[in-house]
Amino acid sequence: MVCTWKITALSNKRIKLYFDNFRLESGLCSSNDYLEVRDGSSSTSLRKGTYCGSSAPPTITSSGRYLWVRFRSDSQTTYRGFQARYEVISKSQSKSSSMVGTVIGVLVGIGFIITIIVIAIYLVKRKNRRVVTTQPLTTTTTVTTNHPPPAGYAPPNPQQYPRAPGPPPLPPPGIHPGPPPPLGPPHLQYGPYNPAPGMAYGAYAYPPQPPGAMPLAQAPPPYYQTEGMKAGPTTVEL
């Protein structure tokens, strides 16, 4: 026995097929009693599936306005058969229902992954805790002992360094050194100087002046202050 149904919906609609009860002969679905569903209007349309046994098929949704169903029985055994119903829905409802199914599947997958990660972290922490508790405690003690020096021991003397030479000592108060030594030949020094011709002065020889020559300027001697004497300017006459 073969029974065929062609379900047709309005334009821009889809068909959703539900199975409330399903009880057919078990075995090979192609040779015994079975139910065949195709997505279209004929036996050559895309096959959705072939079903038999006691497991109900899932909800089937068409891609267009047609759904083709065929039931075949060899009439050798008796079973309760099946009970099915269909619903006409719009394409937007079909998309929303499929999206809800996808979102639920993704959330279930994420929750499963998070559960695995939490379990792994817990096991690692538990293992580390066991390792820490089984390690023995080691204590290091440092003892410092100060021994007194032996009898007759004396510390070495510090190394003595010679002192750096300082400035020469200053003369006693009230005593002043003499005038500074001459810094040039006699004709550039201070004070009157009229040596005889050819007469030497210190380390310098004073040459005689030629007749009629202008007399050389004689600078006054350097002045300095001693006890009971005040220095003052000296007038030079040419």
Automatic annotation (TrEMBL):
PROSITE patterns: CUB (PS01180). This is CUB domain-containing protein. Residues 1-89 form the CUB domain. PANTHER family: OVOCHYMASE-RELATED. Keywords: Disulfide bond, Membrane, Repeat, Transmembrane, Transmembrane helix. It comes from the Eukaryota. The keyword rRNA-binding does not apply. It comes from Desmophyllum pertusum. Residues 138-191 are annotated as: Disordered. The keyword Mitochondrion does not apply. Residues 147-185 have a biased composition (Pro residues). InterPro entries: CUB_dom, Sperma_CUB_dom_sf. The chain crosses the membrane at residues 99-124.
